[in-house]
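ok so i was messing around last nite and threw this chain in just to see what happens. nothing serious, just curious
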Amino acid sequence: MTTKRLKNKDSQEDCIDVEFKSIYNALRNFKKLSEQEATVYIEIMKTKHITVKELAKILDDKKIKSTTTKPYSIIKNLMNANLLFCKDKNATNKVYCPIHPRDLTLDISEAVKDLDDELAIIESEEAKVFREIRENSETLETEYEITNAVSILIDKKYEINFYYNNISVDENHMIYKRLIKNFSLTPKKGNFSMVVATKKDEKLFPKIVILLLKKFDLDQKNDIVGIKIVDPEIFDCLQKGVVLT
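result:
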């Protein structure tokens, strides 16, 4: 079977197979990799493992040029992004392997961008909820309205728990108090993250959550900063969490 190629004269995407397009986008949007790093990671996923010498050959063969494309520098950046691990740290010729490439198979940015297309194929009842959240999110400004929008999901029998991540929050913080009151939170020393648990076999929910987080301008970068889906069978693509910047 022949794999189609995506054509884009202005970026590395012209050498990315269609089947890896969503992973490439996730690497760029959520892992904040450069075009070169994302392209290299796709190649490593295909080979399952790589050495610095092999990476140098890939850079040459694929004509990947940049001021930051020294093989070891790229490997170091991918390891810092928790995408690679060293198989044997004591070996002379170290072998690096990709970490859980399945975690990147859901391209959330595309899901949000193509919202109208998604609505067309979602069951009518779910589409109604999705549309209501989307419309409300364009004008939501207060923590009360935020809670109301999230309550729509709770009414649909979704189990939701919010908590802040690595942020010290004042107990007088309005969003803090609203979340504590409505979601029965148990904060630990004033720091907590956000976790979302969903019913099994539900594919719509992560897109709604991402949409909520994108649309709600929660004090820029200082409010809700993380999301984790705790159903690895269905949502392992977001297993490591998504950090919004």
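not much to say yet. The radius of gyration is 20 Å.
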